[in-house]
């Protein structure tokens, strides 16, 4: 099941883009368009709202045979029985693995460094994420990764590889050809005027993986 899901479009929510009631309808449109993973990314300290939204997203993911991933909150992920994504400053991956169990999907941000990916995999990461690859609204100051790094990572690791940072429909095909298992997309997916446009974009991203 895991390998089947860890390939394709990885939709990442943004609390600003998806404010004013857009979170659930836009997220469902991404799932309807074929997103395999959906990451709930909300850095606020409103725990009650975050629990409510994450629970609703979990139900949507279940309905569309996708997986919910919580950004940087192992306790929330454990409470809901869903996956987790950790940045480099967001706690121990091995502790999170012990908390969430062997079957949970846990991803790790590795910036542009293969050694960080080595460490994450040793600690039990299900997938490793490299970026940013292009100019990014979400992470404008993040270290820049290169397509060559992606090729080296593909040769070195058997685990799925996620690419993030300015990924668009125009530049994603090259990254997929060089070894990306998943493309994590924020603005190019969710900066849309309607839920139907989100679904159209999600279908277009998902189609890039057909036959690959």
Automatic annotation (TrEMBL):
Residues 9-189 form the Thiamine phosphate synthase/TenI domain. SUPFAM superfamilies: Thiamin phosphate synthase. One of its GO terms (biological process) is thiamine diphosphate biosynthetic process. Mg(2+) binds at residues 72, 90. Its EC number is 2.5.1.3. InterPro entries: Aldolase_TIM, ThiamineP_synth_sf, ThiamineP_synth_TenI, TMP_synthase. Keywords: Magnesium, Metal-binding, Thiamine biosynthesis, Transferase. 2-[(2R,5Z)-2-carboxy-4-methylthiazol-5(2H)-ylidene]ethyl phosphate binds at residues 136-138, 166. 4-amino-2-methyl-5-(diphosphooxymethyl)pyrimidine binds at residues 39-43, 71, 109, 139. Belongs to the thiamine-phosphate synthase family. Condenses 4-methyl-5-(beta-hydroxyethyl)thiazole monophosphate (THZ-P) and 2-methyl-4-amino-5-hydroxymethyl pyrimidine pyrophosphate (HMP-PP) to form thiamine monophosphate (TMP). PANTHER family: THIAMINE-PHOSPHATE PYROPHOSPHORYLASE (PTHR20857), THIAMINE-PHOSPHATE SYNTHASE (PTHR20857:SF15). This is Thiamine-phosphate synthase. It comes from Stutzerimonas stutzeri (Pseudomonas stutzeri).
């Amino acid at each position: 099941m895991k390998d089947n899901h860890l390939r394709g479009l990885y939709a990442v929510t943004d609390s600003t883009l998806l404010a004013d009631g857009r979170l659930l309808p836009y997220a469902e449109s991404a799932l309807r368009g074929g997103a395999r993973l959906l990451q709930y990314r909300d850095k606020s300290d409103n725990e009650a709202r975050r629990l409510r939204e994450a629970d609703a997203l979990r139900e949507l993911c279940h309905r569309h045979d996708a997986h919910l991933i919580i950004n940087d909150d192992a306790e929330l992920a454990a409470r809901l029985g869903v996956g987790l994504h950790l940045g480099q400053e967001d706690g121990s991956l091995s502790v999170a693995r012990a908390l969430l169990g062997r079957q949970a999907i846990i991803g790790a941000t590795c910036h542009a460094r293969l050694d960080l990916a080595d460490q994450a995999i040793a600690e039990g990461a299900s997938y490793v994420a490299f970026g940013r690859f292009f100019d990014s609204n979400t992470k404008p100051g993040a270290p820049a990764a290169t397509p060559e790094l992606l090729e080296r990572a593909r040769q070195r690791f058997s685990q799925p590889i996620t690419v993030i940072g300015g990924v668009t429909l125009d530049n994603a095909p090259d990254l997929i050809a060089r070894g990306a298992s998943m493309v994590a997309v924020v603005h190019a997916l969710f900066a849309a005027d309607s839920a139907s446009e989100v679904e159209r974009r999600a279908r277009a991203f998902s189609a890039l993986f057909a036959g690959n």
